[in-house]
Amino acid sequence: MNRHSGYFELPSLETLWRAIDRHRNPYRLKQTVSIRDTPVEVRWTDRAEQALAQRETPLRVEMQLYFSCVVKKRVLFHEQAEPQATPVDTRLQVLFRTVQATSCSPEEFAQHFPVQHDFESAAAGKMKPSRLDLDYHHDRWHGEFYVGKPPRP
Fold first, then answer.
1. What is the Cα gyration radius of the chain?
2. How would you list the strands of the sheet with 129-137, edge to edge?
3. Cα(first)–Cα(last) distance of the chain, in Å?
4. 6, 49, 140, 145: most buried by Cβ count inside 10 Å?
């Protein structure tokens, strides 16, 4: 049977579960930091707060705009602290980078995110994050960031 999404179609169970999970585990905890002379709101859930409290070293969260064949937003989690990262508090650091792939190969992009270097153009310098949302769920860190105006919380 060929189903197309329509106006009156019910959302999938996965979509409903994500909405319920967001409602039960909202991004309650907030801190504003300055990255590239712009305020960035960092929000995290109670689950993320519990995971941060158990850490012995700060978690470094890298927001990355990755320019290759396509532009991709990535949130990477690193175990080691970095001096250039902006501290949110003693347990959490954030960093924003615009990077460019050395080549544009769709297969390589899909598998490995090829070797990269910082993308330092005037246009890349104007791109700045506005909000970072963090969660810890099923023993994994999850993150999403917004460039420009984020959607309403």
1. 18
2. 29-35, 38-44, 129-137, 140-147
3. 37
4. 145
